[in-house]
Design a protein that fits this description.
By secondary structure, the protein is α+β, with helices and mostly antiparallel strands. It is built from 22 helices and 41 strands. Strands 26-30-31-37-36-35-34 form a 7-stranded mixed β-sheet, with helices on both faces. Strands 3, 4, 5, 6, 7 and 10 form a 6-stranded antiparallel β-sheet that branches. It starts with a strand and ends with a strand.
Length: 827
Amino acid sequence: MRVPLSWLGEYVDLPPGTSARGLAAGLVRAGLEVETVTEIGPDVSGVVVGEVLEVNDLDEFSKPIRYCRVRVAPDAEPRGIVCGARNFAVGDRVPVALPGAVLPGGFEIGARMTYGHISDGMICSARELGAGDDHRGILVLAADAPVGADVVDLLHLRDAVLDIAVTPDRGYCLSMRGIAREVAIAFDVALRDPADVPPLAEPAPDRADTADPQPCDIEDPTAADRLVLRSVSGVDPSRPSPLEMQRRLYLAGLRPVSLAVDVTNYVMHELGQPLHAFDRRGLSGSVVVRRARPGERLTTLDHVDRALDPDDVLIADDSGPLSLAGTMGGLSSEVGPDTTDLVIEAAHFSATATARMSRRHELSSEASRRFERGVDPALPPAASARVVRLLLELGGGTYTGCAEVDLPRQPVTVALNADLPGRLAGMPYDRETVLRRLAQVGCTVTGADELLVMAPSWRPDLVEPHDLVEEVVRLEGYDAIPSVLPLTPAAQGLSLDQRQRRAVSRALAATGLVEVLSYPFHGAEVLDIFGVAADDDRRRLTRLANPLSDQAPYLRTSLLPALLETLRRNLGRGTTQGALFEIGPVFLERHGAPAAPRPPVTSRPTTAELAALDAALPDQPLHVGVVLTGARERRGWWGAGRSASWVDAVAAAWVVSGAVHVALTTQADDQPPWHPGRCAALLLDGRPIGHAGELQPRVTAALELPPRTVAMELDLSAVLAGRSGVIPAPTVSTFPAASQDVALVVADGVPAAAVETALREGAGDLLESIRLFDVFTGAQVGPGSRSLAYALRFRAPDRTLTVEEATAARDAAVAEAGRRTGAVLRS
């Protein structure tokens, strides 16, 4: 909202010495956001009113040029000035920049020879003076403008404009009236309400020289509750808007168009009530407010043919739609250069319906901005009367009558404890202060200890006690609230879960992985690319009510989509390898979860309400994800290097489990998006809690990733829940270890992990470590079999083991492996 100070001064008298920046500071203290303060015309000087005495056309040039004699002071000799404009005549008063004058931008005027004559100054257009955008001709002043007067003072060219960002709950501030009210409160000065005007005198019903007023109706009470139509006939369409009105519209950010349009825009900025002028010749029958009907279309003033939605709110007549109510008029009833009979419409439309329609048609206007924030329902009669008065004063004509529909509205009354503002703000606001501030806002207050507050019609946002508290606090001053540090309990340090999570993060980073943070959203399409089945838990999607992107409307059920997208983006920017991990929650929709309740804001939610809110939330287990591609070990003089493979993905899972001292086991599995032959299920106590391996080729191709990209995802919440409490410190023995190697032949289908588990359990307590150091296949072990070679390390805590003891432990381990997996010693 752009607020020229000269316009604002009509409604409030600021204390002497108040500057534009001082005014802005006062409004900021009152809770308004003043974005900029712009000084207008401070560098304009030396421009006076001149009277054109003589005009001579110079026909010898290729373009129209005129040599004019202009009197710039009552007792001065006329000056000769060359000018190319032709929109003025002898006797007109025009602005003249004398030699030495300065125009906006530091442009200095001097006398010079041009077109064979000395031009002793310059006759100025509105744009050249900074008074508007019109550069089609010279600015012709009022006929009674005194010759020689300073044009800067005459036209109030020196001004200041405050640009105020109005929040959605303060729609009344999208008007000079609303801003003036805030200024009056902030500086404790009187307000001259521009809406406080006497009603129009209605024309006598027996007058034969006027037409009947335009009839109106409201078919849909949910779309509007008030409609006022005032008819004016015989307006002279050739009369221009006054220069002062054009200048104010220009400073407010609007382009002057014509008298009828300028007057409605002027009153909209003055009072905050959007209005529309119809050419009465384009109306047929009664004007009604209704919803659109199937198949209807409307060409709006921007010359766009729009298909209407059944939820659109229209102003229509017997011929069909006339305008999108509260948003933009239609072309069929547009006021043109020959329009003499007007119908002025002022209404109160539904804020929700206007906002939805504006967004549906991607059509935001000055009117829709106001209606969707809430307009004073008491304004239509006063605003339309103000427009009619201006039209009669500036364009002539006759007021022919008014038609109005005013549906009943239920006033909002809010119960407020007088001590609530003080309790919430932590300030001692007494009852008199609360009553005074609410009265300044415009509220009607009754009651004693519990106040019954009726909000004014221009404040539809005041519907709860806390809304009223905010008004008291902001007017008393947010800066008056002391800064008090809250009392906090003594620090307890990190919880066990926090320490374990950080341990996992540090362990993964120590292996060369880089941690990333991703947005927790994705679309269903990526699950289709992964090949996720319909009954998979990853299909338990929670849709966002207001997603940041239509391509990612769901909360994530897996970390891999965002991790793989981050990997693809990094590879696209020139990196040749990637090793990323992320730790974060996933969101799994609960089956049959109830709808979330909406607790009141007047008190703390009850235990039952909090439980109901928790029950409506999705499950949010903590996951850890890893993706790898490219070289895992760089090649150089030390060796050939190695590319990342499924082994590294499984190893990342072991790093996670090792960091929190939880034992994971693995077994072959088939789980999208991993390759069926290169996928390992990660098991905790025999239950799968994650997967690791190489991604399917079709997945890497669809995501534009290198072949053989590998990934791991693990339920970290399950891992942390599986830890066994306090981890005992390892015992360090001073006695030597005994090593035994064993090679076992097993069938190809037997997992190495199963063989290792059998060896570990069969060896007993003397086994210190076990390591698979060789895998062999060939004719020596026979077809369908392979040889697994393990290094077993035995140690006793209290003695040196004998060869017999180590051999016995080894033989027990081999026997257990043979019993469980069919393994036999390789000969």
